[in-house]
UniProtKB/TrEMBL annotation:
<dbReference type="InterPro" id="IPR013534">
    <property type="entry name" value="Starch_synth_cat_dom"/>
</dbReference>
<keyword id="KW-0808">Transferase</keyword>
<dbReference type="GO" id="GO:0009011">
    <property type="term" value="F:alpha-1,4-glucan glucosyltransferase (ADP-glucose donor) activity"/>
</dbReference>
<protein>
    <recommendedName>
        <fullName>starch synthase</fullName>
        <ecNumber>2.4.1.21</ecNumber>
    </recommendedName>
</protein>
<feature type="domain" description="Starch synthase catalytic">
    <location>
        <begin position="5"/>
        <end position="237"/>
    </location>
</feature>
<keyword id="KW-0328">Glycosyltransferase</keyword>
<dbReference type="Pfam" id="PF08323">
    <property type="entry name" value="Glyco_transf_5"/>
</dbReference>
Length: 274
């Protein structure tokens, strides 16, 4: 029997970014599930805070060279890779000078969110899917870790719904407390509307008052994980109201086995249904 393939897409990951709930899960989970019989690919942004020399990043020429369209502009996508020797694990980084060269991750020196965070998110989410297509590697589970990945469930279920590589993939979205969506402007929907998506396709990502990233991802994902112990009340209600599988908060330690089992259950159900 072939190994279950898990695509892990994370906005942060130790040791490349500072410690956080998201970075902690992104570092420990892939190593654990790989050591316990699953096949993985890990993708994240190549933020300018990441020291390429220290972490020995190098470009993967065969994967680079694509252009990603965001708001009618073309942006080159460069793919880099680094290895974590102690984990026997490779991490792929999506890079672009316009979006990721700066020496801060999501906020400026005054701790204000970057105005182009929506553009950076669209670039990253679409870039991830196009990169996996270049891999020619069909995942059984797509694990989206953090708000920056929240458009991937939408794209896989709409714009890329006929892409053979993702036909059988279960999309899992992990929800953490907070996101910069309150700073997103009215132009976000237009930016996110790739491949002729309509305003109706994106309606789950807005509530009449503004952008709601977690709600949109909940609507399109196949299953959800509560990554933070405390989350916003409206998001908590959306999780309790959904009929989709939900894995409750598992704590800062010991979460690896329950998440692996959660993935296995989703894949088993897919096989039984087919």
């Amino acid at each position: 029997m072939s190994k279950t393939r898990v695509l892990i897409v994370s906005q942060e990951m130790q040791p490349y970014t500072a410690a956080s709930e998201i970075a902690n899960i992104a570092r420990k989970l892939p190593q654990y599930i790989q050591e316990n019989g699953m096949e993985i690919r890990v993708l994240m942004p190549r933020f300018g805070t990441i020291n390429e020399r220290r972490h020995r990043l190098h470009e993967v020429v065969r994967l680079s060279g694509m252009n990603i369209i965001v708001d009618d502009d073309d942006y080159p996508l460069i793919i880099k890779v680094a290895s974590l020797p102690e984990a026997r694990m490779q991490v792929y980084f999506l890079d672009n000078e316009d979006f990721f060269k700066r020496k801060r991750i999501f906020t400026d020196a005054d701790d204000q969110p970057f105005e182009d965070n929506p553009d950076r998110m669209v670039f990253f989410c679409k870039g991830v899917i196009e990169t996996v297509k270049k891999f020619g590697w069909a995942p059984d589970v797509v694990f989206c870790n953090g708000w920056m990945t929240s458009l991937i469930p939408l794209y896989l279920k709409t714009a890329y719904k006929n892409e053979p590589l993702f036909q059988n993939a279960k999309v899992v979205y992990s929800i953490y407390n907070g996101s910069p969506e309150k700073t997103f402007s009215d132009t976000f929907m237009a930016k996110a509307s790739i491949n002729n998506l309509t305003e109706d396709d994106l309606s789950a990502y807005q509530n009449g008052k503004g952008v709601t990233l977690h709600h949109g991802a909940i609507n399109f994902a196949d299953a959800l994980i509560q990554g933070s112990e405390q989350i916003e009340d409206d998001v908590k209600k959306a999780l309790s109201d959904t009929d989709k599988p939900v894995l409750d908060y598992q704590g800062e330690e010991g979460f690896e086995a329950p998440i692996k089992e959660f993935f296995e259950t989703l894949v088993t159900e897919e096989v039984e249904e087919s």
